[in-house]
Amino acid sequence: MIIIFAGAGNIRAQEDYRFDIGGGIGMTGYLGDANTSNLYSHPSWDAEVLFRYIANPRWAFKTDFYVGGLAGNSADMTNIFPNDETYKFTSTFYELGEMAEFNFFSYGIGEYYRHLKKFTPYITGGLAMTAWSTQGKGGVAFCIPFGFGFKFKPSKRLNLGLEFLMKKTFTDRLDGPLLDDPMGIESSFMKNTDWYSTLTFTVSYEFSKRCATCNYKD
Question: pTM (2 decimals)?
């Protein structure tokens, strides 16, 4: 009996890791004064670096850093600005965030008695800070990222992921100073803030065994 428990402990030590580090690339979308409906009418790019603490097979907490581009053109919209003016912009953003992830399945390889699966969909949400530069003007604002994703584990320590996030910013200047409330709506939570999205494919690698040496006594 002692041998069986010791063997189970060794399996856990070999397969259970506390941290995950990696990165990814993907595309962005924008919703704001220069685009009110089609999120990907002017897609751009993003790159991500991530560090994840794996609390257990269901929960993880991720620190991430994004850099990316945003673009929009009001000429594509049905809405008409005063004096029939049109606006277009390109922007570069930098985002640092903290996210919580909930896996729908117990995620991992090994430990069959815990019903671990090599894949899982998940939901995520958190808080972030975004800095941006648009047409020579920049700023910093809080944003709330939330969304969902899918993880797949081709081996014990390697993870592949695809994640979609919508990010509600607390600014109306992400698309530049010329689009800061062009309609004159001074106090609308939905209309006077900009949104953007990231759709990112990631690769990450787990490290730091949760139990490097496990000793069991009868």
Answer: 0.83
